[in-house]
Each structure stands twice: as C-alpha cells, then as structure tokens.
Amino acid sequence: MAISDDAKRNRDRLFGEHPSSLAETDPGLIEYFDNFAYGETLADAAALDETLDVRTRLLVRLGAALAAGALGEFRVLAAAAIARGGVSPVELKEVVYQGVAYAGMARAYDSLNAINEILTDAGVELPLPGQSACAPDTRLEYGKTVQAKIVGGAEAVQKRIDDAPADQAHFQRYLAANCFGDTVGRGGLDMPTRELITFAMLAALGGADNQVKGHVAGNLAVGNTRARLLAVLTVLVPFIGYPRTLNALAAVDAVTAD
Question: How many CA atoms lie within 13 A of 120 on its CB side?
Fold first, then answer.
C-alpha cells in the first residue's frame, strides 16, 4: 500500500517532507495510518464541514492528545502547529490552560513544559501576554456570565448553585469561578473554538459521557453545529480510537436527536 497523493500532501503541509521515524521500523502501519489520518478522515470531515480548517483541526487534536495523556503525539502536533499550522503561541498556550480545567494539572503539566520548550526553541519570548479577563474579586460573577452562555442561561447557572447540597456547594462555586471565570472566559481563543476543544478533550478522556453530552449542548449554544461536531470526531478517530469516538458520537446523537 502506498501513501496517497492527498495524504502525503496534507501530511507534508504540517511536518514538511520528513518521513515519520516509524516509517523505517513500521512501514506498513504508517502507510495505512497516514492514508487514514491525513487522507480519508480529512476528506470525510470536509464533506461534513468544509470550514473545519487546518488550524482548527490541529487545536482539537492537540486538546485530545493532552487529555489522553499522549505527550509524544502532543509534542509532534504542537511543533507542527507553530511551524506550519497557523496556530499562534497564545492559542497553543490556551489549549493547555484549558486542559488544566478539563483534564487536571497532573495530566497537563508535561504538556505545558513541552509547549514552553517548543516556543523557546522557536524564539518566542515567555511569558506571553496575559489573557485573563477577570480579577480575584470578579471571577465568580464573571464566570457565571460565561457559564450561562454554555449551559442554558443565568437562571440555569444560579439553579445549579442554589440546589447544590450544603456540603457540595463549593464544587458549583469552583465551576463558575475557576472553570468558567479563570479558564474558559480567558482571551486568546473565541468561545466556539474553546467549546470544540472542550468537546475533543472530554471525548478523549473517556468516562465523561455526561460531560460530553453537556458540551454537545454547549457547542450548539455558542453556534457550532451537529455537522461540525461530527467533523471534529472524524478527525479525532485516528488519535483517540474507536471506543471513545463512538461514545462521543452517541452523545452527539442523544443531544441532537430532535
């Protein structure tokens, strides 16, 4: 099996004309993987949503790789994203910062260090300009406004807080202030892109089916479509595997059934 012209062109666009290090040791695998990941799935994703461009594909794949704990693949994609993929240093950092909220610092830590090395090697001065949109005394109320855009309005957010048992109320406060105020409400990425990245992260994590459903609805609320979500899952299949992809697909179907 030879690598198709389309797959080679798409792969070379990201990585240059440098063969994979696995091409020598595992040529058969790399041939069909490259045809699948850089040919077949990209064509099917484009048929679903032709606006899912190289930059967005890289951002969701980076989010998925981080959430899956795939540091090696994350490094490869991050280097390509900066060098040839149209992803800015700020956008790259924001993917990792968002990963802290949705996958935890324990999983995001190594990816953050990898990004710092990649950016330093590329001559980017660190730290980057800050993207925080709130202060310690405003983060809760600001976070509520951001959360409301995603979960169905201000009343829905307040109901979650009001209905929480006393010994669990702090978790709802964390969601509003930390997840949505400190993290999701930051600059550097627009809200529809952030929600796509969140969807990709949750799909790649596995075991977060309820949260995937919640963020399918969140994506729809900020303007992403069923077709766009299906296109994202299409480009993620080679990187997160079939079980997690199919679980996320079921969540899309459940939320968009009507």
Answer: 8
Q: Where are the domains of the chain?
A: 49-125+186-256, 139-183
Separation of alpha carbons 218 and 146, rounded Å:
11
- Would you give per-residue pLDDT tens digits along the chain (258 residues)? 689 999 999 999 999 877 788 888 999 999 999 999 999 999 999 999 999 999 999 999 999 999 999 999 999 999 999 999 999 999 999 999 999 999 999 999 999 999 999 999 999 999 999 999 999 999 999 999 999 999 989 999 999 999 999 999 999 999 999 999 999 999 999 999 999 999 999 999 999 999 999 999 999 999 999 999 999 999 999 999 999 999 999 999 999 986
Q: By C-alpha distance, which of 83, 84, 80 is closest to 20?
A: 80
Please name which of 156, 160, 184, 155 lies closest in space to residue 172, comparing C-alpha atoms.
Answer: 160
Per the CATH hierarchy, to which homologous superfamily does domain 49-125+186-256 belong? AhpD-like (1.20.1290.10)
Are 102 and 201 a contacting pair, CB within 8 Å? yes
Which is nearest to 48 in space by CA: 200, 219, 255, 226? Answer: 226
pTM for this model (two decimals) = 0.96
